[in-house]
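HUMAN: I'm a chemist; might I ask for a sequence paired with its structure tokens?

ASSISTANT:
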Amino acid sequence: MDRALALAAAAGRAGEVPVGAVLLDPGGGLVACAANAREAENDPTAHAETRVLRAAGAALGDSHLDGCTLVVTLEPCTMCAGAIRLARLARVVFAAWEPRTGACGSVRDVLRDSRANHRVEVVAGVRAEEAEELMWRFFAGRR
């Protein structure tokens, strides 16, 4: 989570919503890392989670990231949760809940839906206060 928080802080300084993500292999080794880049890439899908999944797929040479763990500073949205399921991750660890668009247990629960053929373990609240502070400072500066 240290690395994800550092990526989030850098994204915020660059004018992006401060979200950072890292992807770990089944043994805990770093595979890829990314931050939000919607503004820089002019891409509405350039969330930290989708960017890290793309980078990890390229690094591992496979679209299935079986056994891998995503560590992210904010609860993933529906788009990202769908991509996480398609990548077949084992778990998602996130810091802060997203009460408006969260799709890992707050507003909806895409990752643990019993109707799906693949469910993802969700660990929430890891260093939430730090991630919430980054978000608060970012949006306070824009109001």
Summary: DSSP finds five helices and five strands in the chain. Residues 99 and 106 are 6 Å apart (CA to CA). The mean pLDDT is 97. The longest strand covers residues 30-35.
